[in-house]
Structures are given as C-alpha cells and as structure tokens.
Amino acid sequence: MTSYLLRGVSVLGAEPTDLLIRDGVIASGPATGADIIDAAGLVALPGLVDLHTHLREPGREDAETVETGSRAAALGGYTAVFAMANTSPVADTAGVVEQVWRLGREAGLVDVQPIGAVTVGLAGKQLAELGAMATSAAGVRIFSDDGHCVADPRLMRRALEYVKAFDGIIAQHAEEPRLTEGAQMHEGEVSTRLGLTGWPAVAEEAIIARDVLLAEHVGSRLHICHVSTAGSVEVLRQAKARGVRVTAEVTPHHLLLTDELAASYDPVYKVNPPLRTAKDVHALREALVEGVIDIVATDHAPHAVEDKECEWAYARPGMVGLETALPVVLSVLGERWDLIAERMSRTPARIAGLTGHGTDLAVGDPANLTLVDPSARRVVDPSELASRSRNTPYAGTTLPGRIVATFLRGEPTVLDGKAVK
Amino acid sequence: MIKHLRSAADLDAPTATLILDTAGEMAALAGREVKKLPTLRGRTVVNLFYEDSTRTRISFEAAAKRLSADVINFSAKGSSVSKGESLKDTALTLQAMGADAVVIRHPASGAPHRLAQWVDGSVVNAGDGTHEHPTQALLDAYTMRSRLGRLDGLKVAIVGDVLHSRVARSNVLLLTTLGAQVTLVGPPTLIPLNVAAALSPKTKVSYDLDSVLPDMDVVMMLRVQTERMQDSYFPSAREYSRRYGLDLARMRKLPEHAIVMHPGPMNRGMEITPEVADSSRSTIVEQVANGVSARMAVLYLLLGGKA
Lengths: 421, 307
Ligand SMILES: [Zn+2]
What we know:
The complex is a heterodimer. Chain A has helices spanning 66-75, 94-107, 130-135, 153-162, 189-194, 201-218, 230-242, 252-256, 278-290, 325-333, 337-352, and strands at residues 4-11, 17-22, 25-27, 35-38, 43-46, 48-53, 78-83, 111-114, 142-143, 169-172, 185-186, 198-199, 222-224, 246-250, 295-296, 369-379, 398-408, 411-415, 418-419. Chain A is an alpha/beta fold. Chain A has eleven helices and 19 strands. In chain A, strand 9 (142-143), helix 4 (153-162) and strand 10 (169-172) form a beta-alpha-beta unit. By secondary structure, chain B is α/β, with parallel strands linked by helices. Chain B has twelve helices and nine strands. Chain B has helices spanning 13-30, 54-66, 87-96, 111-118, 134-148, 166-177, 195-199, 209-212, 237-244, 248-251, 274-277, 284-304, and strands at 44-49, 70-75, 101-106, 122-128, 155-159, 181-185, 204-206, 218-221, 259-261. The A-B interface holds A 184, 187-198, 264-266, 306, 309-314 and B 80-81, 86-88, 106-111, 113-114, 117, 128-132, 166, 169, 192-195, 197-199. The structure holds zinc ion. Zinc ion is lined by residues 146-147, 173, 225-226 of chain A.
C-alpha cells in the first residue's frame, strides 16, 4: 500500500502542515518512501458523507449506476454515500440492499451504504422487512420511502417504533400527498403566473409537524429529508427546543436557487420538493448555520435526457448534485471549514452511525478525506460531469472551489481533480 | 415586432394596440368580395394541436389562409409522455419542413416556451395548459374596444374558475397593459392566492358577484367544468350557479351599456343561462368572428417583416 505525504496542507483551514497517510490511516513519524503531494494552498476536510443519493441501480442504469454515481461522489469530495431505496426493484429486501452494497464495494470509490425502504414497494401500505435489512451484510440503519411520503400516520408511528430495536432511523420525505396532487412547482406568485399546479409549503410543514409529535410520543429518532421551507425550519426549531430526537437535511439547490427559475419552463429546474422563494432560501441558510438543520445532503437525482428534454409537466423531478455540492455550499457559507465539515461530514456520519468517516483527521483515524482548492473557480459544464446524467441546474454557473484529491481509507479515488479509476 | 407570442406579457401597450388596429383593418377586409391578402404567400404556418379544439384550429386556419399562407395541420392528439413522438422531435421535424410559424395548442403549461427553444420560426401560443391563451385575450380586447370604443379605464369583471383558466391569465395581463381595471370574481377556491402580486398589482379580487356587477362595463364569464366539484372546489353545480352564474336577474344589475362575454365553449345553465347568452348584450358570436381578424393580425405582424 502506497503512503502519501500531503505537504503544506491546511487541515480545516488551520496553519499549513504535513499530513502523512500510511496503511490506510493518518500516521505520524518519518515519511520514508511516501509519495509526496504538494498540497500548498489546499484545505483538507474529512471525506464528505451524503445521506441522500439516488444511484438508480438496479433499474435505471441508463441514468446512473452505482459505479458512475460513486465516481461522481468521489469527484465531489465524498467518501460515503447513502443510496436511496427507490430503485427498480425497490430496495425493500435484504437481497436488494446487499446487491447495491456489493456493487458499491466492487466500484471501490466511496462507501456505498444502502437505505432500505420503509414499506413494501414504497407503496405505503405494509412495513418492509426492516430487521432483515438491518442484519444483512449491508447493515442498513436508515430507512426511507423517499420519493414518497410515509403518509399514513399509523404506519409512520409503527415504523418509528419498530426500528428502535436496532437503532434505526426513519428518513421522511415530508409531502402530504393529498395537498400535492398534480403539483409541479412551489405554490406562490410564480406558479400562479406560469399556470403550473402549486406544491404548497404547508404540505411539507404539516407532515414534519405531525412526525415530530409522533417521534416525541414514541421516543424514536426521526430524520427529515430535504427541508425546503421557512415554516419547516420553525417547526424543527420548536421540536428541537423540546428535545425531540429529530435531525434534518437541506440540499445545496434549496440553499441557492429559487422558484423564479421555473419561468423558463426548463425542467432542469423541476425538483421535489420544489425550489422555493428567496425568503425560504434565507431561512434555510440561517437554519443550517445555527444547526436547526443539521446537515447538507445532495438528493443527487440523475435523469436520462428524454426525462428532462420535454414539457415541464411531463419531466421527472430531480437534479444531479454530487459534483457541485461542496462548491455550492462554499458559495453559500464561505470558507467556514469547520462548519462545512460539521454539516457535510461529521454530523451525517454520526446520524447514520457510520464509523471511520467524519473524523477529526487525527493520527490513527482512517484516512477518509478530501483536498479542496478554495481559490479555484469553475464554470459548470454538464458534459464534463462524471455522472451518467446531465441534469445539473448550474450549467454555465461559476462556482468556487475545486476538489483536487479524495482518499478512501488511504487510497486515492481522485488525484489532480480526476478519478483514478 | 416581437418574434413569438407565448404570453400576453410579451406585448407592451404599443404592440398590443398595433395588433388591435391591424385586426380592425383585417375585419374591414372580411366585408370585401375578395377576402384574401397576398401578404404571406409562400410562407408556411403549422397548426400543431395536442388538444382537440376545432374552433381555435379553424380560426387560425382561416386566418392563415386569408393571408395566403400555406397551412399544415398537424394533429398530435394522443401523443404525450410515454407514447408517440416527443415535442422536441416534432419540433425538429417542423424545423426541417421550414415552418415560418407554429401555432401550438398543448395541455402542458409552457409547451410553447419549450417549442420556441427548438424551432427557428415564430411560435404562437393557442392555449397551453392552465397558463395562457393570448390570442383569445386579443380578440376579447378587440371585441370590447369595438363595442365600447375604448379599453383605457374600462372596468372588466372576469368571473369563474380563474385558477385553471388560461383565458383569465392572458386577459388580466393584456387588459391591464391596455389600461383596463380587472376584477376577478369567483369562489375563493378558484381564485389563486397572491393573484394580484402574480399578474398585476392593479387586479382586484371579489368573492361577491352581485356587489361587483353594478360598476362593470364588461362581464366575462369563464367556463366552469363540473368535474371541479369532485375536487371540492365548490359543493354542487346548483350552488355554483346560484352564487356565480349569470342569469337575467343578475344581468339587469349591470349598467345599460355593459356587455357580456364568454370565450366558449359555454356550459349553458352552469355559469351562464341561455337567455343571457343569447341576449343583445352578449358578444359571444362576435367574439368568434373577431377571432379570425385578431389571429390574422398576429400572423401578419409576426411574419410580416420576414418576407
Ligand atoms: Zn425526496
């Protein structure tokens, strides 16, 4: 195994130092025989951890595979991603989650941790075999019907309770389905002007309010996916103040983009939950800094060209995000490296119970880390993405920061900004 | 001149006025023996209709033919998400055929905006989903101006299912541009939240038709689909008619000179009674004739500069 010496690297923005990687861990002592990487001007972060990725395999390998998604993740600075269950077949059995987990190991670019479905076929009727997925080789701890809301309150209560047996957590896609039938974009002035059916903020807020009460009642852990409204932030703030065990994520695109973009009717801006207003964006940014929102998660959602190059109403919702997440967060938070590490690495690892990721990069820690050049600027070019899909909302946008290298247990997955395999 | 007519918001006051004036000239022509103008000879106008709307298609077809354009009717009904050719592929086909203008009717809001990204010719929105129907607004404005002599300062009530109405959106935008004062009337479930902020800050909203009528110069009744009941927008057709339908008793509350409009097709007995629809205040038949003139004006002006 090759050793590496990162010369002159700034760990989380601290004074430049040398960081030695040997035998898969951060090491001390002489760097004899190590490959030397000139890391002057680069910032080392613990490898990023994404709790919300759609890798599309099995089922839509034309849009993404575990391998292409893993490569996109590594290029984005990630060392672990959690693969959502809405594949075809759905990841609702031990067999499917083990398949995804194994494909991740074979790709070997990031740790791919499958998320299990809460209900059979994501149909919201009957619990999937959560215990079997938990005890499978994949060791599933996070369960989600993402793409769908677990709308039935009794079923949601049972799911929250049931996973306590193996310290599981339910990640809710908060969307009251009766309030969002046919919904195409955020309900507001822009949807009225564009004649597109509105997705009201209250459809998200009502489910979050209900679910924090359920989690409080049964003493379970709850995670809220892709929080998108100022009202949701208020509900979470109150729940956390009461001591409810709830965590929440926000996507990079909800931190940066607004519903005005729909005026082009270009479905590259169609996403679920939809882009909201500038007021919501402002509230989400504040909540992320404060910690009312715990983490950034990408909701990386690759789609084939034909699913986006069409009328808005017929397009699938979702955006790719793994390769642009850190630059977007950098542009939103600035170079607050410790905060970025907290929101994109340590806390997601802690929520998921994932060991070896989100460390302080201390001697002896597994060498899962990424090197960022904060002075670089990049114009996003969809054709350059490693993802199999091109549906980025940032085409032509200049974003700060470039991921120069990523290491997974001491092995480089990205060097000189390029994937090593 | 603008290149596309995707939304009534594409029109500023001088452009809209030019179209209405041109429509007047076109209408005068309709009285002559030879009804055709050679203006668009050799130009190709495609009617691309993804929804059945014989009346709108025929109106555009007549307009294009009276300007001597070659007309291709491309009925794509049934082609949608999963089956049939994509809008983009169709656009590329039309592009290869050398379409100078594509008139598109589509169930999805914004389809004309997408089409305009894929073809070089002019795109005319003939109704897209629940978004807009700008030529309907032009023919309505033309009809109001012909009957009442002006648009500036005119008080217009648009009554009914504003939420789902492309006619309402285009009319609010165009009429406001031309100085009219629009009041939207209907049950609160069918008036979008923030509608004034979304379309024009001058727009008023009322939930009480009776209180609005005495002050109006124009009342425009929108078609209300009875299926809306299933979605609880209102309890029953009977209650809807009682609160928001235009019958003779309500019509008498209007000032002497006021006119009654309807974009058609009507639900007689629902939003409008037959006596009102057929009364001398009703402009419903005129609206159809004016539709051809307004669409001639649009095609003439969009394509005129490019011969
Ligand atoms: Zn989701």
